[in-house]
Amino acid sequence: MTSNVGPTVRRRRLGQELRRLRQEKGMTAEEVAEELMVSQSKISRLENGRRSISQRDVRDLCRTYKVEDKALVDSLMQMAKESRQQGWWNAFGDVPYSVYIGFETDAASLRVYEPQVLPGLLQTPEYAEAVISGALPEAPQDQIAQRVQVRLRRQERITDPLAPLRLWAVVDEAAMRRVVGNSKIMSDQLDYLVRMSHEPHVTVQALPFDMGSHPGMSGQFTILEFSDESDTSVVYLEGVTSDLYLEKLSDVQSYSMMYEHLRAQALNADQSRQFITEMAQEHARRHQEESEAAPAD
């Protein structure tokens, strides 16, 4: 039941197993909460893997469900112990989207649609700093620097020589035209995007304005998939104050269908590289014009 995964996915697996045991016992979350004298929300959070699970929690739940298989109980207790280990992101302090990072760290592949900014896993340090500064105008510089470092650390999954993350990104033209930082930053960023698109495990597709309306007009989303069949896919929707994780099969299927339509409407990989290169050249020309127009010291 255990494997070499991080604490976020381990909590999720443990929660799924506890839900299975409850359902086999024919109990509702309300009934379990009442018997253990805890809130129903705690039982729900334990089962969806959003809350750290202690060995005491596992012991109490197994007693409630009258689990007699000692090997199963021991396995669940070990999972609870391992699920409380810290991920690499904890070294950076309080990271607000740590649940997502945990999923991303253990994912085998990501399908990303970005309508406003370029994908975080494919950002240059300069672009990342400009994006974060713009999104958090009142944040102190040390907080911005911390978030940039976390983003760069996340990118190591792309270059992992043993198990690189499979990344497929559909990017709207708006994200390429929006001047984040300055024209030089944009030119360098788009050149970098083209270079990364040549990696065998990275696919980038551009979605030009003239493609018209499309299924992604409701906003950004990410579909995370895992190598273990027991770990169902997750759809991640980023919010301002909270994020949303969709795990129901019907939700995942709906977003997967949306993504297939997006891929079909977007330019293919070679056309996208040409399109992005032209965008980079436009930003480079603008930077040259701005430099020439700047007054001499």
From TrEMBL:
Top-level taxonomic group: Bacteria
Organism: Streptomyces javensis
Classification via SMART domains: HTH_XRE (SM00530)
Family matches, as Gene3D superfamilies: lambda repressor-like DNA-binding domains
Pfam families found in the cross-reference section: DUF5753, HTH_31
Coiled-coil region list: none
SUPFAM superfamilies per UniProt: lambda repressor-like DNA-binding domains
The protein's name: Helix-turn-helix domain-containing protein
Residues covered by the HTH cro/C1-type domain: 18-72
